[in-house]
Amino acid sequence: MKVFGLAGWSGSGKTTLLEKLIPLFVARGLRVATVKQAHHDVDLDQPGKDSYRHRAAGASEVLLASSARWALLHELCDEPEPVLAQHLARLSPCDLVLVEGFKRETIPKLEIHRPVNGKALLYPGDSHIIAIASDAPLEAPLPCLNLNEPAQIAEFILRHLEIEK
């Protein structure tokens, strides 16, 4: 599996870009997975549903299964938050894993930057950022890509990861 990250401040457009990139990769025949880091208490389950009640009763894991999909909910309890490598090991085999978040991981990353947000660029402090995608021209020693050109960004990622499809 090839792994590539999107990093940026909240509101920069990481998820929106991922929504545009994924179909481009899939159209090329790639099997794509994503890992999204959340900085808050994530709960995919609904109060009152059986699976929610199982967790509320103390189950450390609940696997929801249907004919369309399955999801495994794991309660960390007092365990430390897993690192990216532990999450990657749980994924089924695929061609490309796109990672949103995990800013401090040592994977190649594209920084998503919108100057209008008033936030500083991340790249000076992260040697794993290999390019910047922005909606405004930037002066930087890294390749600068147009955030509004997802096909150009997809090609850049494929070239960098040496994926030919």
UniProtKB/TrEMBL annotation:
Residue intervals of the Molybdopterin-guanine dinucleotide biosynthesis protein B (MobB) domain: 3-135
Gene3D superfamilies per UniProt: P-loop containing nucleotide triphosphate hydrolases
Database matches in InterPro entries: MGD_biosynthesis_adapter (IPR052539), MobB_dom (IPR004435), P-loop_NTPase (IPR027417)
GO MF terms, alphabetically ordered: GTP binding
A Pfam family annotated for this UniProt entry: MobB
Residue ranges that the Swiss-Prot or TrEMBL entry lists as coiled coil: none
NCBIfam families the record matches: mobB
Biological processes per GO annotation: Mo-molybdopterin cofactor biosynthetic process
Organism: Sulfurimicrobium lacus
Protein name: Molybdopterin-guanine dinucleotide biosynthesis protein MobB
